[in-house]
Amino acid sequence: SILFEEFGKVLVIEPYLSSVVLSGMILDNSNFKNRIELIESITSGTQQLSVAYIESNQNFDHSLPATTAVSDGENLIICGTKSLVLNGGNADQIIASVMLDGEFALVLIDKENTGYACQAYPTVDGQTCADITFNSVSISNKSIIARGEEAVSLLENAIHLATLCICAESIGCMTACYLKTVEYTKGREQFGQPISNFQVLQHRMVDMFIHTELCKSLLFKAMLEFDSNADTKNQSVSALKFQIGISGKFVSQQAIQLHGGMGVSNEMLIGHYLKKIVAIDALFGNGNHHLNNYS
């Protein structure tokens, strides 16, 4: 969380989340034969990986993908389309969720395979996603990372860890918004004095600080429960993600309000923090989804 909080403060756009957190978490906890070589290639920077699990009309339920894997001798034929693949346009290999013989499975697919088509596009926060189509892509059956309950557990735990990471990143954005706003109001003068002297603005900045610290407390609780594999870990992650959505928008919007028109200019970071926070709110389930999970 310390690393991602710092990422948020300076708006890092490198694909650490997709390659290291999501892909690395799945590989590291699997029994996949080539996992060590793949993890080494990720850490050395020679390869980028991503996880393709989102499909249209799923409504945050990723347990029954429409993408299929059909046995063909010693190979598998993959057919289907994945959406919103983080850093998918730059990924050398993709960990994709499929239905194999009626059960959930995770398979590794190389971008050089025939029938692999990728359409990349930028996102509002400066990163990239891709829609990837598998048109009868043939892979070896040795590319199966996991199947059944093991595959479901691997994907769920990776998404929960990634959710904790982006929540920490959002807290970094909120912290930067708060500190930069305090600094700006101390230097901006109106009626012969810094606007930071006005009590009503001080109250707003205190509220920004309180929202940030509230999210930090929820983050620590969720991290401890996730690390100890507590029964309530999923609820804690959902509670954190829900609050991040509320507090992140409040803090970033207040920062823009106190900066005035300067806050939405490309030359200042404040508007970019808002874009990042909005993107984080939608990633891995929005507030309504996590509120339903918690209840």
TrEMBL record:
<protein>
    <recommendedName>
        <fullName>Acyl-CoA dehydrogenase/oxidase C-terminal domain-containing protein</fullName>
    </recommendedName>
</protein>
<dbReference type="InterPro" id="IPR036250">
    <property type="entry name" value="AcylCo_DH-like_C"/>
</dbReference>
<keyword id="KW-0285">Flavoprotein</keyword>
<dbReference type="InterPro" id="IPR009075">
    <property type="entry name" value="AcylCo_DH/oxidase_C"/>
</dbReference>
<dbReference type="GO" id="GO:0003995">
    <property type="term" value="F:acyl-CoA dehydrogenase activity"/>
</dbReference>
<comment type="similarity">
    <text>Belongs to the acyl-CoA dehydrogenase family.</text>
</comment>
<feature type="domain" description="Acyl-CoA dehydrogenase/oxidase C-terminal">
    <location>
        <begin position="157"/>
        <end position="292"/>
    </location>
</feature>
<dbReference type="InterPro" id="IPR009100">
    <property type="entry name" value="AcylCoA_DH/oxidase_NM_dom_sf"/>
</dbReference>
<dbReference type="InterPro" id="IPR046373">
    <property type="entry name" value="Acyl-CoA_Oxase/DH_mid-dom_sf"/>
</dbReference>
<dbReference type="Pfam" id="PF00441">
    <property type="entry name" value="Acyl-CoA_dh_1"/>
</dbReference>
<keyword id="KW-0560">Oxidoreductase</keyword>
<keyword id="KW-0274">FAD</keyword>
